[in-house]
Amino acid sequence: MPREYSADELLPLSGIQHFLFCRRQWALIHVEMQWKENVLTAEGRLMHQRVDDPFFTEVRNGVILARSVPIASYRLGLSGICDAVEFTSSPEGVKIPGREGKYLPIPVEYKRGRPKSDPVDEVQLCAQAMCLEEMLSVSIPAGYLYYGETRHRTAVNLGNELRELVQKMAGEMHAYFERGYTPKVKPSKACRSCSLIDICLPNVQEKATSVANYIREWVERD
Amino acid sequence: MKTLSNVLYITSPEVYLSLDGENVVVRKDEHTSTRLPLHNLENIVCFNWQGVSPALMGACAERGIGLAFLSPNGRFLGRVTGKVYGNVLLRKKQYLISEHESQCVPIASSFLIGKIYNSRKVIERALRDHGLLVDKDTLGRASAFLKEILKGLTTCKHIPELMAFEGSAAKIYFSVFDQLILQQKEDFHFEERSRRPPLDNMNSLLSFLYTLLTNEAMSALEAVGLDPYVGFLHADRPGRPSLALDLMEELRPVFADRLALSLVNRKQITGKGFTQKESGGILMDDDTRKTVITAWQERKKEEIEHPYLKERIPFGLIPHVQALLLARYLRGDLDAYPPFFWN
Ligand code: SF4
């Protein structure tokens, strides 16, 4: 039996993107709470500006579009908010309160930039789908990623490989969190675009054993 | 390294601050107000009576912008902190270490090594820049004495022993401090350190600069998740920001003493800007306070190479970098806490 987490243990789903970018960055933000305005809160604010009204549900061509949908998975131990979920009429779907017929939920995630070479966005989308599956007892074969820069949405097939990756990442995140563990620095190319570089100080650790020498050297100076 | 944090200092005692959208509005009366975007602001330090609207406090807490209240004379009153306050794991480590003298000693001695090195540097600078105006022999002797103390500090095993070394160092340093004042001698002289209240103009100036520095040290420590109230050198006492005082030790000579001397020696401030009250205590007037804060802000923009990181950073970031290095040491990433040495 896979373990189930309690409500108190849920970690932010949006952390997956930090975790995949750099585990240390994730730990600095989520374990050490060393968040910076420009990373988390600014993202949150932008999101709210973009998503017009969370209480407004649109119906377009028979598709129900719900915005800012709160989601959680107790199996993954993650919770968060889905930008948008599209419900399309389908016999494989589920009943939703106040509507006739059955609908299949499809998560839609909006990204400001363009498609990336790594699977960060896919993994996050897949985690959202897994939350919805658990909450609605349904299987969701695909989701959409919408990129602001290309103004295109791409269907993402939520296959086993992706699901296993989500499972693995969520498990690791919880293991780190429980131990209160922040991985040591491995300076990489990513550091240059990392907004936590001034908190992480990636190049300090390279000199890690030399502080005693540093002090001695300065004290003996004239 | 990163950009220098922006600090908004509110120096007029009669203004009121409020929030409008994403801006802070500084209002003096019905007609005069200034608006500044909150975005990019890292700290707001208020020396006003009227305070700040609750909405602005909330916005600062949410965004992690430091908001501190000081009385117009610079006495610390309080600060607003948000939901995320520090890092529990790191603070537990900090508390644990603070309970064991043997683990406090290496950190405390780093702070003092930094302090005495930098105090000595203040003297050495005067000797170098004003060799003809100062009493070379006395200053030279003081410098040599500080160097001996510096060596002694590296082998201390107990806090009282460290304190004794620091006591002798402070005595010798302050005994020659008056000689570093080269201008306006009739208004600025220094016999000994007086604090509550400062009894002469120089002490009043130093106290004010130390207050600014305390506030910077507190926000730097809070920003990296440490508890500014639990120190390694300064003992715990309710209401005393011991760790901020610890961290300040190495920064005082560079940030405050040296700045005080240059404000006086360059005649940027004069004796007229200070008033002696009936009790003997000295009050600094608004304009002088503004001049001091402007000089402080300018100082913070100057770039230096950090001796340990070997990176160029603005002066104003030093408290943050030192707080970070301390956190890294407590987390076990470094073998010791590297003090800031001023070159
Ligand atoms: S600076 Fe580099 S190592 Fe540090 S958190 Fe960022 S990406 Fe990770």
UniProtKB/TrEMBL annotation, chain A:
<dbReference type="GO" id="GO:0051607">
    <property type="term" value="P:defense response to virus"/>
</dbReference>
<keyword id="KW-0464">Manganese</keyword>
<dbReference type="InterPro" id="IPR013343">
    <property type="entry name" value="CRISPR-assoc_prot_Cas4"/>
</dbReference>
<dbReference type="InterPro" id="IPR011604">
    <property type="entry name" value="PDDEXK-like_dom_sf"/>
</dbReference>
<keyword id="KW-0479">Metal-binding</keyword>
<feature type="domain" description="DUF83">
    <location>
        <begin position="105"/>
        <end position="201"/>
    </location>
</feature>
<dbReference type="Pfam" id="PF01930">
    <property type="entry name" value="Cas_Cas4"/>
</dbReference>
<dbReference type="GO" id="GO:0004527">
    <property type="term" value="F:exonuclease activity"/>
</dbReference>
<dbReference type="GO" id="GO:0051536">
    <property type="term" value="F:iron-sulfur cluster binding"/>
</dbReference>
<keyword id="KW-0540">Nuclease</keyword>
<dbReference type="InterPro" id="IPR022765">
    <property type="entry name" value="Dna2/Cas4_DUF83"/>
</dbReference>
<keyword id="KW-0269">Exonuclease</keyword>
<dbReference type="GO" id="GO:0046872">
    <property type="term" value="F:metal ion binding"/>
</dbReference>
<keyword id="KW-0051">Antiviral defense</keyword>
<comment type="similarity">
    <text>Belongs to the CRISPR-associated exonuclease Cas4 family.</text>
</comment>
<dbReference type="InterPro" id="IPR051827">
    <property type="entry name" value="Cas4_exonuclease"/>
</dbReference>
<keyword id="KW-0408">Iron</keyword>
<keyword id="KW-0411">Iron-sulfur</keyword>
<comment type="function">
    <text>CRISPR (clustered regularly interspaced short palindromic repeat) is an adaptive immune system that provides protection against mobile genetic elements (viruses, transposable elements and conjugative plasmids). CRISPR clusters contain sequences complementary to antecedent mobile elements and target invading nucleic acids. CRISPR clusters are transcribed and processed into CRISPR RNA (crRNA).</text>
</comment>
<protein>
    <recommendedName>
        <fullName>CRISPR-associated exonuclease Cas4</fullName>
        <ecNumber>3.1.12.1</ecNumber>
    </recommendedName>
</protein>
<keyword id="KW-0378">Hydrolase</keyword>
TrEMBL record, chain B:
<keyword id="KW-0238">DNA-binding</keyword>
<keyword id="KW-0464">Manganese</keyword>
<dbReference type="Pfam" id="PF01867">
    <property type="entry name" value="Cas_Cas1"/>
</dbReference>
<dbReference type="InterPro" id="IPR042211">
    <property type="entry name" value="CRISPR-assoc_Cas1_N"/>
</dbReference>
<dbReference type="GO" id="GO:0003677">
    <property type="term" value="F:DNA binding"/>
</dbReference>
<dbReference type="GO" id="GO:0004520">
    <property type="term" value="F:DNA endonuclease activity"/>
</dbReference>
<feature type="binding site">
    <location>
        <position position="166"/>
    </location>
    <ligand>
        <name>Mn(2+)</name>
    </ligand>
</feature>
<keyword id="KW-0540">Nuclease</keyword>
<protein>
    <recommendedName>
        <fullName>CRISPR-associated endonuclease Cas1</fullName>
        <ecNumber>3.1.-.-</ecNumber>
    </recommendedName>
</protein>
<keyword id="KW-0460">Magnesium</keyword>
<dbReference type="InterPro" id="IPR050646">
    <property type="entry name" value="Cas1"/>
</dbReference>
<keyword id="KW-0378">Hydrolase</keyword>
<comment type="function">
    <text>CRISPR (clustered regularly interspaced short palindromic repeat), is an adaptive immune system that provides protection against mobile genetic elements (viruses, transposable elements and conjugative plasmids). CRISPR clusters contain spacers, sequences complementary to antecedent mobile elements, and target invading nucleic acids. CRISPR clusters are transcribed and processed into CRISPR RNA (crRNA). Acts as a dsDNA endonuclease. Involved in the integration of spacer DNA into the CRISPR cassette.</text>
</comment>
<keyword id="KW-0479">Metal-binding</keyword>
<dbReference type="GO" id="GO:0051607">
    <property type="term" value="P:defense response to virus"/>
</dbReference>
<feature type="binding site">
    <location>
        <position position="249"/>
    </location>
    <ligand>
        <name>Mn(2+)</name>
    </ligand>
</feature>
<dbReference type="GO" id="GO:0043571">
    <property type="term" value="P:maintenance of CRISPR repeat elements"/>
</dbReference>
<dbReference type="InterPro" id="IPR002729">
    <property type="entry name" value="CRISPR-assoc_Cas1"/>
</dbReference>
<dbReference type="InterPro" id="IPR042206">
    <property type="entry name" value="CRISPR-assoc_Cas1_C"/>
</dbReference>
<dbReference type="GO" id="GO:0016787">
    <property type="term" value="F:hydrolase activity"/>
</dbReference>
<dbReference type="GO" id="GO:0046872">
    <property type="term" value="F:metal ion binding"/>
</dbReference>
<comment type="similarity">
    <text>Belongs to the CRISPR-associated endonuclease Cas1 family.</text>
</comment>
